[in-house]
Fold each of these.
Amino acid sequence: MEIGVVELSRLQFATTALFHFLFVPLTLGLSVICAIMETVYVMTDRPIWRQMTKFWGALFGINFAIGVATGITMEFQFGMNWAYYSHYVGDIFGAPLAMEGLMAFFMEATFVGLWFFGWDRLSKRAHLMVGWLVAIATNFSALWILIANGWMQFPVGAQFNPITMRMELTSFFDVALNPVAQAKFVHTVSAGYVCGSVFVLGVSSWYLLKGRHIQLARRSIAVASAFGLAGVMSVIVLGDESGYDASENQKMKMAAIEAMWETEPAPASFTLFGFPDQTTHETKWAIHIPYVMGLIGTRSLTQEIAGIDQLVTRAHDRVRNGIVAYDLMMQIQAQRDSGVDPALIARFRRHEHDLGYALLLKTRVEDPRQATEEQISQAAADTVPHVWPIFWAFRIMVGLGFGMLCMMGYFFWRASFRRMSFPRWALWLAVIATPAPWIAIEMGWIVAEYGRQPWTVAEVLPTALSVSHLSVAEVAVTLAGFVLLYSALFVVEMGLMFKYIRKGPHEDVALTEDWMQRHENRLSGRAEVAK
């Protein structure tokens, strides 16, 4: 495959987005976990909980700072490499990004500063309120970004203006309440909670294996296992909602996830394992589970899920209808200076929903109206993303999700009903499994973003038309620069994290140890009296 500006721009966006999202879920999870721990401290006045909050808060701060840096560079490359996309949908995409900047990021930055420097300057309750505001602001930040991304997956609340050649906002509330965006938000945030919980569980298990900071580690495992169990159950339930939305609004993505080449009789089976072959349109050595995909995708036993071949046939018809829309748009452009006939606009509105399909032809012919039958067929075939990466990314994500459900359930059971005693094999499992949520989350983003291809905005704007007018050399140089920058930031992040984890909790040590000694003496005294 020839590497051009489009391919390099996509690679650069994938690199920056996937790297940035290494930090976002841990920020989401640790912000809430720290708020929970500080709540327990304020309620009980036990110094151990203050020490726990400060320790995990320090790791949150490191991750937050590096995450902000990677987010800024990501936005820079977005504006640099995707200029036409920014022009085409700026009226819609700019609104949630502005809300994210004005509300969430401003709140987040302000309250994070108050939280870190206000321990001895604010009252306990005031500081606790700030801690919860940090967690809320962090979630608000994710909300507006995911609203913007959800609109790219399922564009609502907007209409194309054939005179200005841009998408224009028609309803902010439709954009904000987009069902795809809302499902994506709660699914992503819950995944962040699981990520933070698995991180706390893994570090705490390592402390127990080393015989260090026993009291902090046990209490941290109790919090992480309970919060993580709720989080992973939420991820699974809300993942089902995302699957249902995809079957309704992104049929090709759903078919690619399942490698469903032909429409099956309802209810469709779920392919547990197999090797999709996009050349022959078959999945080799497939293992099917009856009914499951029909229930996930349609929540019924009677509705079909369209197969890839049938969707390509539909796309062929939509390309033809899109050519009609393109022709009407060109007529409107010709009348732009002299006044556009309203009847022409009305005719365009009847066909505009397929305009994006005609734009797929622009990679093969300058004027889609001149496209041959072969080129129309090729454009229809282009609507199919590469199946095997989506197929396997989805299964890795789901497999890791159910694995973390079992692990969290086991640790919750041991923490709640076995006096927080954990066998060494389970502690080693928690340490080894620490990277699992990051892998699952990155796989989820591959399914979401790679599965949307060939569209930047689903069925509206093809990716090939969204890039800036840059040379291959310019994009390659900036890609190399981003890789070097992110590699340096990754080394800094890992170095600081490992340094503070090895160092362990170092604040309020004397106060905590004194309280723990008095607490143990009280328990010993009660035991003697009981005898």
Amino acid sequence: MIMAATTQGNFHTATGRADTSGVLDDGRLGQPVRQGIIRAAAMAKESEEKARSRQHAKGKRTARERLELLFDEDTFDEMGRFVGADIGQGKPGSAVITGFGEVYGRKVAVYAQDFSVRGGTLGQAEGRKICRLMDMAIENGIPIVSLIDSGGARIQEGVAALTEYGHIFRKTCQASGYVPQISLILGPCAGGAVYCPALTDMIIMTKENSNMFVTGPDVVKAATGETISMEDLGGGNVHATLSGVAHYLGADEADAIDYARTVLAYLPSNSQQEPPTYAYASGHAEREASKRLASVVPDNERQPYDVLDVIRNIVDYGEFVQVHELFAPSAVVGFACLEGKPVGIVANQPLVQAGSLDVDSSEKIARFVRLCDAFNLPVITLVDTPGYKPGSGQEHAGIIRRGAKMIYAYANAQVPLVTVVLRKAFGGAYIVMGSKSIGADMNFAWPTSQIAVLGAQGAVNIIHRRDLQKANDEGEDVDALRKKLVTEYETTTVNANLSLEMGEIDAMIDPEQTRQAISESLLTFAGKRRHHLVDKHHGNQPL
């Protein structure tokens, strides 16, 4: 929006014309509008018309149309509309729009790259506008949203343009963990520019027109001889399913922007505040949902089920907002509310690889737990895993190094941590999935749950290897003996009673008590505060 002071007359945003009469709407006399203001208004109107014609032809919205979707109606206040412009020569301003608006009534800072102006490229004017916005957001503790649609660094400005990216990188790192930062990729994002969103808390892409890559298809072909399309190299689907770069894949721009608004609704404005709370009154629906939990998880430990059915029967209204839904599907992470208060949820997904942990799911969980811990969201962990995925592929992919990230995230988290073992928790996976020993505040287990170093079948094959071999040599029924030994192992070792007796499990609860147990635990630890055990600058997280 372009606004002129009342002493300078009126600007009609609908027509793009300025009233030069000096007569205000209420009949009072004001000073005539200067010609520069008139030219600026006309140039703004013409610029947006050009943007619509260019962007709509590509199936994309203009930067300003995207801002209308992001913010509550009539809440966006723009800063520096004509920075970098030459009004006298009719040259538009910079290729980025900056300002503040409201999302569900709370202030949010935004910068939106405008591809219709110099291809959305970034030069000194754009970089300085973005950094100024980020400084103001950090100073005032306001979330930052970036709408990316850019041709990258402005070649004509050379190193000066690259320098501005360096400044933005540094500001993003300074803001990290203090204010939420969300990036929406709504067009091209290539070269060094990809690290602007890569440093933020969440990246949202769209199925169409959204690309991210360090080196484009032409460079790849020249360097390696590989021929590949932009979509196959760095499209939204690739980054949402294979690389894990994108946390959400929107069906279109409206869906992507709506997801950003939804995520912001669960997060506080900054790390010094508590997440927003919402009015909620439990009733018949919650009681019925709790009863359904008794039949969701099969008795047979090898039979799969959808852990989303468990989550939706625990949280308010059954509403669960997944993060990284299409990536590393053997684990599920996302936001929900309990008694009107936002929480983060981590769960194994038995439908995929029996819920085992691998390199990707470990990083997925670690990143999400760190996000929740940074912004004061309690973490609820639902466990049903046979352990880590075995194989040379996982070892060579760095399961030791990458799996350690998950340990680091849980062990350093200082928000309330509540864990429920739904069915099985074996080996190292039991430890890292929010166990008491790694720092959880309250740990529960369902009555039929199994907790052990190894599953019964695997343990018997190792412990009783000689007994089974002897039975085979003597012509005895090996399968019958194995079954007997498995039953004994499950009775004496695998059941959760041992963990209960050791204090590693605080209580054995029936499935229908799960929501109540978690809610009461969160109420108990609502006053949990951060503390520093040792004086240090920071730890050396495995990366």
Amino acid sequence: MDRATRPRGPRHILALLTAALLAVSGITVLSSAARAADADLARNGGFESGLTGWHCTAGTTVSSPVHSGSSALQATPAGSDDAQCAQTVTVQPGAQYTLSGYVRGSYVYLGASGTGTTDVSTWTPSASDWQRLSTTFRTGAATTEVTIYLHGWYGTGAYHADDISLIGPDGGSAGQPPAAPTGLRTTSVTSSSVGLAWSAVAGATRYAVYRDGTEVQTVSGTSATVTGLAPSTAYGFQVTAANDAGESAKSANVNVTTVSGSGGGSSGLPTHALVGYLHTSFANGSGYLRLADVPDSWDVIDLAFGEPTSATSGDIRFHRCPVSACPNAESDADFKAAIKAKQAAGKKVLISIGGQNGQVQLTTTAARDAFVSSVSKIIDDYGLDGLDIDFEGHSLSLNADDTDFKNPTTPVIVNLISALKTLKATYGSTFVLTMAPETFFVQNGYQYYGTGKWGGQDPRCGAYLPVIYALRDDLTLLHVQDYNSGPIMGLDNQYHSMGGADFHIAMTDMLLTGFPVAGDTHNVFPPLRPDQVAIGMPASTYAGNGYVSPVEVTRTLDCLTKKTSCGSYATHGTWPALRGLMTWSVNWDRYSGWEFQKNFDAYFG
């Protein structure tokens, strides 16, 4: 029987008398009628509408396990992220509230902040099945908003949450998120950008733009331009409206195909290219290989290495391996003849600057100018097609006050960008420009950039990003070294380690999808075109840490170009125009019976 229809017996009369006596004494009690006016203020507490209403650093909805309904939250903390999901709720000042929910997993926290009194939280160290957490708080005399949140603990496993509720007096209609935007349309379409506009939404203070389901931009007005797109590529766009109470559902989808355009300087490369480094200035256990003897499968040959006379001189010299160290080294005349023969066959021969031992720090404009002059001399002397930047170690790092990859201020970064733009302008559109950074300098920028907001981080974190960004229209190929790398967090907010296809898939997906730098969704590193990206892998177990078998190489290519054999990592697209593979090195591949080359030839025909 419903409580409102129960007969009024002696206990009810006694309760009324007790309340009256307390009122006479100046003590206020919360009556049944007052409690009946309370409401559940948590929006989408059962996660039946995905993550609508919640702001999560990591998380998704799943259909199993659930406490009730058809969905629940699943979030996985990482090494520096506790996978928090939160929402801000409008409340009444000086009111009592009860926060509760059901959770599963290790170290799950439920709490409220900004209460105006004492912020509260409750947690469980281990819940193998659904466990109810509950806590109460009273808002301060001037408090009108409270943030409720869930999170796990750093580096532990995934947690689940469902049926989150905040019971108490309704704070008013100001707690409602705005409606979904309407009228989304394109205003301009180029080979690398799409302009969008939509109708204003009452109560909205900001709008978020989504590309293929991923948030790429937040604006205050009703228009935006999404950049960093690939030519002749289809994209889907949606927009949401938001205010302090939360975010709306997504608008209707608008599908746009960018126009064709060359940009970036593909410079006559085949649709799928094989890139390799040739040991030309030193000897090691792989043995010296004459340039004329490099098989025709290799489309880009990087001569390793040109090195500076000192770390900060900018003066680059290229010395071929002496006969005393490389007895079968060809003469300069034969070497130059081999370069011309390779070029006649459609191959590109580049000078690679840096390497493990060649630290290059262009700290001054004088060093910048010396770099341009000395590199130009090497290119002209040998008749080369372009330049590969293989800066490693401490060549690139960011000053503490350099926090925006789109507007760098650190001299070694600014001077390198200037030098490369000068070289590109000097030699024209056929000049081949490639880069071979380590993952620490690129994908690691998803988590960390430079020394960080509070200092203490390695200033080299993400230091290649401003260089790549500034030269994105001049860059022929980026082939990040997916080897000799520590674990790197992917766009799934999971750490990925070398040794299998998943590492290469996750690292390449980041380049082709783009990613917020240092977790800032308002500062997104835009994706590169697929024809600008090759995957860097060791040719053999002798060449470096991170070697994977031909089976794993094939699985990587299948996933990225066909979206098959993808394993545990879900990519954000399919890129049949992916340029190809890079390896360290041609010499080590020859040493191992041309395994890497043969697998590439078999895959791309």
Amino acid sequence: MIHTADSTFRLDANAVDYLIVATYFVVVVGIGLMARRQVSTSLDFFLSGRSLPAWVTGLAFISANLGAVEIMGMSANGAEFGMATVHYFWVGAVPAMLFLGIVMMPFYYGSGVRSVPEFMRRRFGTGAHLVNALSFAVAQLLIAGINLYLLATIVNRLLGWPLWVSLVAAAAIVLSYTALGGLSAAIYNEVLQFFVIVAALLPLTIVALHKVGGWEGIKDKVQPGQEQLSSWPGTDLTGIDSPVLSVIGIVFGLGFVLSFGYWTTNFVEVQRAMASDSISAAKRAPIIGAFPKMFIPFIVIIPGIIAAIVVPELVKLKAGEAAGDVKYNDAILLLMRDLLPNGMLGIAIAGLLASFMAGMAANISAFNTVFSYDLWQQYVKKDEDDSYYTRIGRLATVAATIIAIGTAGIASNYSNLMNYLQTLFGFFNAPLFATFILGMFWKRMTATAGWTGLVSGTAAAVLVAFLSEDSFGSASWGVLGLKGQGASFVAAGAAFVVDILVSIIVTMFTRPRDEADLEGLVYSLTPKESLVDPDEVHLPWYQSPPKLAGIGLVLVIVLNVIFW
């Protein structure tokens, strides 16, 4: 149920703050109007005509992920669990982003597919394709609801409107530019939003550090103790008491299954790289995005930790005392309320609105592509004019936005949205990654194994979630004694293992496709020259995907060691 405006707290914005926010909205819609002029074909609307440079798609790649859950969810995790939250970045993101750039993007881009489900159709046929397309579409509607709910929360805190009114107003803004300009409007806005988000969160972090007395002040005051400033073994984060099992859950469940499942097969992210103007640019896009990604914890998690020290309501919440309607999701908002003067508050609010719109627009633009190409064109109307599918894409954008208003109600029931999000990833991304990676490197895997593995893996994740303590609230059975994000890690691991086992068994009893049909879809059957640009070997080091990926890998290892 979506609640009306509550009396917990309001952001004390003045005319200057409102003017900054209004100016930002005008710019966002203006970008949508300008991008509309570039849309003449469905490829323009859904994939920006594959014409954008790597730096644009790279920033859009990271900005699309820098949405409501990244800002509110990770700061909530920081407030509740401390530095262990960095695992979502340094273990659960950067390595997979580098792998996507070096290994996976050449297959996606070189095959000429328009979406990840289309790649699945070419590799496994319509069975796996339909399962993947439907599950992806549902996931995007649910995740768009999370971004929309948090976007509406900001409007509610600013204006005091009932939350349902805020939801409709927020949805209308995102709809205006995604329906007008398609992916180009989303991507150009995401590049702008990246800089606005950093401009908002960096000053907040500096002010918060000054307030608490720097890093030494954090060490002295953090509750329940300095163990919250160590990233390993992360038992609070996982909810697993055994340090060894907690580390295994983080490394295998988050670092391998959930991370690689999300970053390498999630079309929301892959779509941005697909809009690049060459294979080399497509490979660089996620690698470029990995560099800001590894430093985002310092402007998201650190403020969350400080909020749990300096914000009275969160201090009470963390101590187990009554704190009104305040949730950990409010950490960044409460910090802004208490620390930022007017003017700077307006920039911070614009930054938060930017992050939420970036996340929702990414979900909606990916949804309309998969719905139009992979569901409508494939199974409903096959041979219509190109302009027809562009119209379907715009209608799908409207429909998805309306549905997201409904799914926002589900998100409003979670005090820490990372629990909800990781549960969804376990359902949809983990089994897809298992099917995808097995099919890419094992030419014997059959089409029947593709869809049966996906269905079995998803069912395993759902079962583990129901057997855990709080994945579905009162509907959960609590048999396994798992809770929070640790339950999501175990569910993802179960999905991956079950998917692999079922796929192998089914493959043994079904007939594989001819090898000639799998060129460009299976690693061992694809000519290596088709996976690179002819002039890639002559690129300077700062444009060479392998060299950039190597630098990124070294940096993220160093960060993990420093904050061990």
